[in-house]
Amino acid sequence: MINDLEIMLNFSVDHKPLLDAAFEWERSVDDFAEGDEDLQNYITGLEKARDESEAEELNTDQLALEFEKFLRQNEGESGTEKN
Q1: CA 27 – CA 19 distance, rounded (Å)
Q2: Up-side HSE of residue 51: CA atoms within 13 Å toward CB?
Q3: For residue 16, how many other CB atoms are within 10 A of its CB?
Q4: 82: number of Cβ within 10 Å
Q5: Which of 61, 65, 72, 83 is such that its CA lies 20 to 30 A from the CA of 54?
Q6: CA angle 23, 49, 53 (to 5 degrees)
Q7: How many angstroms from the chain centroid is the CA of residue 59?
Q8: pLDDT tens string 8-20
Q9: Residue 10 falls in which region: left (phi positive, over 0), alpha (psi -120 to 50) or beta
Q10: DSSP 80
């Protein structure tokens, strides 16, 4: 997402500090949840929901691309009359 923004704005950002901070935050959450089974289950559920959502989004994007391809392939046929 940041890469897309950089492309749109024609602007580059050093990602390393952000990636390092994200890794440290994730590590602290893992350490905090280590002894709490309920919290671990909750986090696992959130991660599963995120993965399913991303998979659904990808499938939706693929469907849109296939539909656009279909429309392009049939573009010439829509203007002709069939007898």
Answers
A1: 12
A2: 6
A3: 8
A4: 4
A5: 72
A6: 95
A7: 11
A8: 888 888 889 989 9
A9: left
A10: S
Token pair for 27: 């590590």
57 token code pair: 């989004």
Other CB atoms within a 10 A radius of the CB of residue 33 amount to 16
- Residue 63: band (very low, low, confident or very high) from pLDDT cuts 50, 70, 90: confident
Q: Are 12 and 6 in contact (CB under 8 A)?
A: yes
Q: Which of 43, 17, 41 is nearest to 28 (CA)?
A: 43
Nearest-5° angle of CA 30, CA 34, CA 37?
A: 120
Give the C-alpha distances (Å, rounded to integers) separating 73 from 46, 58, 70. Answer: 41, 23, 5
